[in-house]
Each structure stands twice: as structure tokens, then as C-alpha cells.
Amino acid sequence: MTIKDVAREAGVSVATVSRVWNEAAFVSPETRQRVAEVASRLGYSPHGAARSLITRTTHAIGVLLPDLYGEFFSEIIRGIDHTAQAAGYHILVSSSHDSKDEIDAALRSMRGRVDGLIIMSPDLEAQQTLRALQGSFPVVLLNGGAEENAFDTISIENHEGARKMVHHLIARGHTRIAMIGGPPRNYDAAERRRGYETALAENGIALDASLIVLGDFSELSGHRAVEQLLGLEQRPTAIFAANDSMAIGALSALHERGVRVPESVAVAGFDDIPLARYMNPQLSTVHVDISELGERAAALLLSSLHEGTRPTQQLQLSTTLVIRSSCGGLAS
Predict the structure, then answer these.
(1) pLDDT-derived band at 220, boundaries 50, 70, 90
(2) Which has the higher per-residue pLDDT, 308 or 39?
(3) I want to staple 200 with a disulfide (CB 3.0 to 4.6 A). Which of 63, 137, 144, 205 is the partner?
(4) pLDDT confidence bin for 274, thresholds 50/70/90
(5) What is the pLDDT of residues 102-153, one digit of tens each?
(6) Topology match between the domains 60-157+291-317 and 158-288+321-327
(7) Which residues are paired to 285 by β-bridges?
(8) What's the CA dihedral at 83, 87, 90, 94 to 10 degrees?
(9) In terms of Cα–Cα distance, which of 305, 237, 287 is closest to 267?
(10) pLDDT tens digit string along 229-239?
């Protein structure tokens, strides 16, 4: 079944059928209805690739994330998809695993297949690749630490969120606070560590390098970090993990070693993934509305697609503390 068959059956030109599918002007409501009814009866649907060649649009958004594993990324995708579908767009999702080569490969594969891109590339070494996209087509960066005003960006209040959580632990009486950090080239990890160090300095607590163990944002790395921290001659009395997955791994390791939480060691995370509230004990964390992060990124990209050239926008998503039982409750 082709567009010519629809045009012949509806008694209109091929150009009119094309205008109906592309929602162009100058077609009467009666003609639109007749063409739609004929197309439905004949089972005709325009081929997406062919249609995109004519309209130069695909009605698809590309989404490039460092990983697709875990609740954090699934919540981002859910938020993007919800907003995109409401606007009549679909999403194409790929992962880069924080590799510059894989980022390059994913971007090449998406060219011509999407109208714009949402990229979360916290790897600081990926900046050169991202700069090459400037001006080519609409891009929204999530937490990329990109040069100011180069792209539309949405970032999380990483530094301040970490700072507030460590201040809370200090207010609970802790001075020997360990941090399980993220990968060394990761923008989010760098900002959260900076918040940790700021809070210590503001309270006159000297930075102890032995209390900082780097992970990779996975549960396993949080588990391994605790094994290292428990081997110290002077153990920490509190652990702040740069994300909830590592905090969950830390809780598991502490339980296995018979260390009571929060009585012996307090634990806090960052992100407030859905699982955090169902841990035992429930995980204290820095709340990020992860789904809203995806929704706002999609809305920003769609506004760029529809409005054309405009000044770039730099937005920041606020964070709040969610204090649960893993760190002993509210500060005294």
C-alpha cells in the first residue's frame, strides 16, 4: 500500500495526502478527515525514514547516558519519555559507559535519526567531543560541566547537597566522616566530593585522605570501600556515599561484618532512588527529583526545537535532605 493508493481512493492528489500527514496548512478539515479514513481502511502508514527526508524531521529525540543500569538512569529515561511522548516524539536511547570512543560512536549512529540530543556525559574528558556538537543541532546537557553558555544545560545541586548532608552528620556529633566517592573523571563525583570537603573545612575538621575511598557508583564498589574503611586503625563513625547505590553496598558490607547502623556507623547517600526508603535501616540521602530531571531536559530540548535560535539556558535542580534511620534521625 502506497501514498498513491490513498490519494486515488480519497480523490485527492499525492501532495494533499502528504500535507495531511505532515500536518501542513491549506487542507480543509473535511479533506483531512477523508484522507485519514481512507488511510485507516487501507492500512496505510507513512514510512518514517522516507517522511523524515521530506520534512527534515524525525520526531525522535536521542538520549545518551553513561549507563542504563540502575534506578537512577531508569528514572531519568522515564521522565524524558513521558514528556517526549506527550509532545508526539519518541526516544532513541544509547549508553556510552563514560568512554570517549563510545560517545563518538553513539553520536555518529544517531546523526540523521533524531532531531536533537539529550546527553548525560559527566566524564570530564568528553568535553572536546561535546564542543564539536556546538551549533550542529539542538543539544541539552545533563550534569556535564560544560563551558558556560555553550549548550542548554540542567545540573543537579551537587556541591550544596553534599555539603548539607555532611553538615548534618557533623551536627549529629560525627567528626570522623568517610566518603565513598565516584570515578575520578566524573563531574558529579567531583562536585559531591567538593561539597564534602567544604563542609569539613567550614567546621574546622581536617581532611583525612585515608577516609576517602573511590568507587564507581555501583553497589559492589560501595561494599568494597567499606571493607577498606573497616580495616583502618581508627574507623569512621559515619560514611557519606556519593550515590545511593554505593551507600546500599556499604549497608550490606556493614551488616555482614556485624557493624550496627546507625549505632556504630551512620550511613548517608545521594540521589534518593526509590529503593532507598525500603532499605533496613532506611537510607538517609540527598533527594534529587530524578524523573523531573528527565522531564525538564526533554522540555528544554523541545522548546529549542520549536523556537529555533534563542539564547541557551542553564538550569539547576535543587536538592533536599531526606533524613531517615540510617544516620540516626534528626540532628540534636
Answers:
(1) very high
(2) 39
(3) 205
(4) very high
(5) 777 777 778 778 998 998 865 656 666 666 666 667 889 887 665 557 788 8
(6) yes
(7) 322
(8) -40
(9) 237
(10) 999 999 999 99
Residue 276 to residues 19, 26, 43, 90, 230, Cα–Cα distance (Å): 51, 55, 48, 30, 23
**Cβ pair 261, 251 in contact under 8 A:** yes
158-288+321-327 is classed CATH 3.30.565.10: no
In the chain, domain spans: 3-55, 60-157+291-317, 158-288+321-327
How many other β-carbons are positioned within 10 Å of the β-carbon of residue 148? 8
More reliable by pLDDT, 303 or 98: 303
Rounded CA-CA distance 19/26 in Å is: 8
Strand partners, 180: 213, 241
Q: Which CATH superfamily is domain 60-157+291-317 in?
A: Response regulator (3.40.50.2300)
Considering only CA atoms, which of 154, 77, 62, 79 is closest in space to residue 116?
Answer: 62
User: What are 245's three cell numbers?
Assistant: 547505590
Give the residue among 142, 1, 131 at the shortest CA–CA distance from 62.
142
The 3-state DSSP class for residue 317 equals strand
My answer on whether omega of the bond before 262 falls inside 30° of 0, hence cis, is yes
Rounded to an integer, what is the distance from CA 165 to the centroid of its chain?
21
What is the distance between the alpha carbons of residues 69 and 121, in angstroms, rounded to a whole number?
15
Element (DSSP H or E) covering residue 139: strand 139-142
pLDDT band at 52 (very low <50, low <70, confident <90, very high): very low
Residue of 197, 209, 196 lying closest to 243 (CA atoms): 196
CA–CA gap between residue 58 and residue 112 (Å, rounded): 8
* Short-list 109, 116, 154, 156, CA closest to 133: 116
Q: Which of residues 55 and 296 earns the better pLDDT score? A: 296
The shares of helix, strand and coil residues in the chain, as percent rounded to the nearest 5, are 45, 15, 35
Rounded Cα gap, residues 64 and 69, in angstroms: 13
